[in-house]
Amino acid sequence: MTIEQIYTGCLAQGAYYISSNGEAAIVDPLRSPDPYVKKAREAGDTIKYIFETHFHADFVSGHLDLAKETGAQIVYGPGAKTDYEKHEAEDGEEFKLGDLTIRVLHTPGHTLESTTYLLLDEQGTPKAIFSGDTLFIGDVGRPDLAQKKGHLTKEDLAGLLYDSLRRKIMVLPDDVVVYPAHGAGSACGKKMSRETTDTLGNQKETNYALRKDMTREAFVAEVTAGLAPPPAYFSENVRMNKAGYDSFSDVMERGAVALDPERFEQVANHEMALVLDVRSKEDFVQGFIPNSIFIGIDGSFAPWVGELVPDLQQPILLVTDPGREAETVERLSRVGYDNALGYLDGGLEAWRTYGGEIDTIDTITAADFDPQAASYVLDVRKESEYAGGHLSGATNLPLSRLPHATGELDSDITYHLHCGSGYRSTIASSLLKARGFDRLVNVQDKVADILATESVDA
Fold first, then answer.
1. Residue where a domain terminates, one of 235, 263, 291
2. Looking at the predicted structure, is the pLDDT value of residue 453 above 60?
3. Using CA atoms, how far apart are residues 390 and 371, in angstroms rounded to an integer?
4. How far apart are CA 342 and CA 295, in angstroms?
């Protein structure tokens, strides 16, 4: 028996490869089928099943391409209605995988079709659960994503989640290993641990939502408290996972196209394309194509694209470091941005040689930042970070809210922008630059040091 977690840090997402006696199953695969097909080929396994724990909101699953390439059967839990062929399992239904058995546990709450898959060994002993977004390490799934106006509230879903956890999961043996779909950094929960697996027994002792004496009313109140609005792209990802989408190979063929600077400029103008610059923040501020938006590939790339680019059909042109073009197209596709139209061949140096216009952003280090001399300081961290300590006089405008709040700002004022490391402030600076704000100073690096030495309000 083999259980392998395939963890993708950018999305804080865990997919799983399970195999026994020459047969394999994949749980919650990402968009590209290649890693799973390669793994099966190397192991001499046949991929028999693709188990989906629910309709994912934070990424586009790879079940359709993987099924087409391998012939594996797509399995969802009860109530999962799709526009493509799949098997809708019944609660308690079992699937044989080599010497193993995988049992369906319908666990609604995060969504109505949410399902946990219980793995039994050859003796029928429970060994592991693949809990999707029902149970995380340190947390449980947020119950507000599947609300239906006039039908279901987040409180209704939270109540279902309480029942699912108590009746289906907490009754399992303590030594069962929990394999969730996400870890810390995902927007699908509030208090997830950085650990990505644990025993169920330890979760019963440490997870606030699994307290033995917790009433249904207390659970509903705690799980629904403090939920930030879900990112705008979540509903569209759910739709794609239900209805289907372009094949991954077509998306890559369309997006990983080298464009010389002249053609790049023509496509940008003709298609009204967004120029997305994914290089490092240090390189971006020193020179970029005017009106381009920075979201660095080495940060929380896909979630920030989903948060800040509202239209998944938006044509996108890419500026990347050499060798990272295809990676960028793939990572966009993971959250449903399938309309990349190519990348700047030769990167920004080719653009300079071509004679293309270059813009910059005034940038200073934290050591050179004097908050007392700054006319206006914008802190673009989350509200919770700001509440934990901030520079006296600084205004909090979280990056996620910035695109909708530029009307609150004055382009005649000089703004100093900071976050915790310079990544989010560089994104924010690029967004404001593209909207005509020229009096910007971006503060990069170690702003925490300033918070430790300057006047701080909490």
1. 235
2. no
3. 11
4. 17
Task: Please list, in sequence order, all residues whose beta carbon lies within 8 angstroms of the beta carbon of residue 299, skipping any fewer than 6 positions away.
Answer: 423
pLDDT band for 145, please (50, 70, 90 cuts).
confident
Say yes or no: 188 and 322 in one domain.
Answer: no
Report the chain's C-alpha Rg in angstroms: 24
DSSP sequence for 127-146: EEEEEETTB-SS-B--S-TT
Residue 452 placed within a domain: yes
**Region for residue 44 given its phi and psi (left: phi exceeds 0; alpha: psi -120 to 50; beta: otherwise):** left
Residue 443's domain spans which residues? 362-457
Residues 290 and 198 in one domain: no
HEC secondary structure over 200-215 = HHHHHHHCHHHCCCCC
What does the pLDDT look like over 72-110, one tens digit per residue?
999 999 999 999 999 999 999 999 999 999 999 999 999
List, in sequence order, every beta strand (DSSP E) within 382-428: 390-391, 395-396, 415-418
Q: In 412-445, which positions are buried (b, 16+ CB within 10 angstroms) versus exposed (e)?
A: eeebbbbbbbbbbbbbbbbbbbbeebeebbbbbb
Separation of alpha carbons 87 and 105, rounded Å? 15
Let me know whether 16 and 160 are in one domain. yes
What pLDDT digit, counting tens, does each position of 334-392 carry? Answer: 999 999 999 999 999 999 999 999 999 999 998 888 888 888 999 999 998 999 889 88
Residue 283: Cβ within 10 Å count: 16
- Please indicate, yes or no, if residue 327 is contained in any of the structural domains: yes
The CA-to-CA distance between both ends of the chain, in Å, stands at: 52
Query: Is residue 349 domain-shared with residue 368, that is, in the same domain?
Result: no
| pLDDT, tens only, 276-301 | 999 999 999 999 999 999 999 998 89
Within a domain: 349: yes
Q: pTM for the full model?
A: 0.91
Q: Are 214 and 223 in contact (CB under 8 A)?
A: no
